[in-house]
Design a protein that fits this description.
It is globular, with a radius of gyration of 22 Å. A seven-stranded mixed β-sheet has the order 4-10-9-8-7-5-6, sandwiched between helices. Strands 1-2-3-13 form a four-stranded mixed β-sheet. Strands 11-12-15-14 form a four-stranded antiparallel β-sheet. It has helices at residues 3-13, 21-27, 54-57, 66-78, 91-103, 117-134, 157-160, 164-167, 194-212, 238-249, 270-273, 301-308, 327-341, 345-363, 399-409, 432-451, 453-458, and strands spanning 32-36, 40-43, 48-51, 108-114, 142-146, 177-180, 217-222, 252-256, 280-283, 295-300, 369-375, 378-383, 412-413, 415-416, 421-424. It folds into two domains: 31-64 and 344-458, Aspartate Aminotransferase, domain 1 (Alpha-Beta Complex); 68-341, Type I PLP-dependent aspartate aminotransferase-like (Major domain) (Aspartate Aminotransferase, domain 2, 3-Layer(aba) Sandwich), CATH 3.40.640. Helix 11 links the parallel strand 8 and strand 9. Helices cover 41% and strands 15% of the residues. The protein is built from 17 helices and 15 strands. The protein binds pyridoxal-5'-phosphate. Pyridoxal-5'-phosphate is lined by residues 116-118, 121, 150-152, 223, 227-228, 256, 258-259, 284, 295. Pyridoxal-5'-phosphate binds next to helix 6.
Length: 460
């Protein structure tokens, strides 16, 4: 099929996720054709680009791992599908749940397997609701999340997401969904002092719970680093402080590690860095490194037993899906986790963090850059029109699209957020050479954008 024919069919038939539908029709798709050597993507025109975003912060092991392909193929040959309904199960799904219990924070003993992050968040909301009903506290129905947070786009989970595009026209947030301010050191009203940022979040959570009444609040949801909100990195100690506050307030503490899990921020899970034990945890992306779809919700004994003992042994807990615990996805996840651990990928990423941090730090000298931040191999560069006042660029300049296009022309993929934050989530196999290429291409891209007369005029 010719490229033009493919692009035409895309316009006519394929709805893209989180896209401006008419804008997409005009611009057309950049068709990706192959990925190789961990970090490289090739498009349908043969152009090679360095993927500094691991697909959608998911291909943590990188492209081209033959052992993963083999694990999937073997499982497909042996048993391509097994339902988890009617008392059936499959070995990969059982082994994966046990493996997750081994590597996750100790509090998390039980796993429900999903197809991705949104479905894991949706399962969390449904099971929390069920838990409080089953344990005789049906009034505990309010959920608190964080401004700029992202928890997927299911019909209820999208209301815990606090980004305007996910609310506009979708009738969320619901009346029982609430937010506190983002722990955003660069733009926090309390300044960037770590203890002040932490204290402000704890106070905001306490105030919100007091406003709603502790007896009415079910849970607090957070990401250890806010990903889609612009890679907002809270100070170290923040997650632990929010865990303790939630415990004191008598509400469930739910950590969404869909991005931060599986080595993205250094350890296997961000919770482990601060010895945090959540009541529930969601994960996806790095679980299978994007080779096949899968997510998971893990829950504590307390939540599990509350639901299990809430009804007679033969009464169904009506939450499920055809592909929960899909054996091919589970087989892939087991191999991917083996690569993180025995394959040395996590250790390699930890060794690369100082170089990544140094490269980001050098970007601060650039006239467009107001802030850089990172945790592990998850980072951001925030562009401002005036470094002293932190004034943002006028969205009318269309800078986000221009930066993305210019980056691509320079052979680099990063996330270009609408508010002029550039997000980076390189595969955990990035080498020193790859990082050198990343920062050289990024600098070229920023220089090109800086050269544009309208951008120069917008600078203070
Ligand atoms: C923190 C977080 N939660 C949930 C989701 C939703 O996951 P999915 O896109 O797999 O549905 C994402 C996706 O980016 C995410 O970053």
């Amino acid at each position: 099929m010719t490229t033009d024919a493919l692009l035409d069919l895309d316009r006519k038939h394929l709805i893209h996720p989180v896209a401006a539908w008419r804008g997409h029709e005009q611009r057309g798709t950049t068709v990706l054709a192959s990925g190789h050597d961990g970090v490289w993507l090739r498009d349908i025109h043969g152009k090679e680009v360095l993927d500094a975003f691991a697909g959608l912060w998911c291909v943590n092991i990188g492209y081209g791992h033959e052992s993963v392909v083999q694990a999937a193929a073997e499982q497909m040959r042996k048993l391509p599908y097994a339902t988890g309904y009617f008392g059936f199960g499959s070995e990969p799904a059982i082994r994966l749940a046990a493996k997750l219990a081994e590597i996750a924070p100790k509090s998390l003993r039980h796993t429900y397997l999903t197809l991705g992050g949104s479905e894991a968040v949706d399962a969390a909301i449904r099971l929390i609701t069920h838990y409080y009903n089953a344990t005789g506290r049906p009034q505990k129905k309010h959920f608190i999340a964080i401004e700029r947070g992202y928890h997927g786009s299911s019909s209820v989970g999208s209301g815990l997401t606090a980004l305007p595009a996910f609310h506009r026209g979708f009738d969320v947030p619901l009346p029982n969904q609430h937010y506190i301010a983002s722990p955003y050191p660069y733009r926090s009203p309390v300044g960037d002092d770590p203890q002040a940022v932490i204290a402000a979040s704890v106070a905001a959570l306490r105030a919100k719970v007091a406003e709603l009444g502790a007896d009415n609040v079910a849970a607090f949801f957070c990401e250890p680093v806010q990903g889609s909100g612009g890679v907002i990195v809270p100070p170290k100690g923040w997650l632990k402080a929010m865990r303790e506050a939630s415990r004191e307030l008598g509400i469930l503490f739910v950590v969404d590690e869909v991005i931060t899990g599986f080595g993205r921020t250094g350890p296997m899970f961000a919770c482990l860095a601060e010895d945090v034990e959540p009541d529930l945890m969601t994960m996806a992306k790095g679980l299978t490194s994007g080779y096949v779809p899968m997510g998971a919700l893990m829950i504590s004994d307390e939540v599990y037993n509350g639901i299990a003992d809430g009804a007679a042994p033969n009464v169904l807990v009506g939450h499920g899906a055809t592909y929960s615990g899909h054996p091919v996805s589970a087989a892939v996840a087991l191999e991917v986790i083996r690569l993180y651990e025995e394959g040395g990928i996590l250790a390699h990423a930890q060794a690369m963090e100082p170089g990544f941090a140094a490269g980001l730090g050098e970007m601060l000298d650039h006239p467009l850059v107001g802030d850089v931040r990172h945790r592990g191999l998850l980072g951001a560069v925030e562009l401002v029109a005036d470094k002293a006042s932190k004034r943002a660029f006028d969205p009318a300049l269309g800078l986000a699209d221009r930066l993305f296009r210019s980056g691509y022309q320079n052979g680099l993929i990063f996330r270009s957020f609408g508010d002029h934050i550039l997000g980076f989530a390189p595969a955990l196999c990035f080498t020193e050479d790859n990082f050198a290429q990343l920062f050289a291409r990024l600098k070229r891209t920023l220089d090109e954008v800086l050269d544009a007369p309208d951008v120069r005029r917008a600078l203070a």
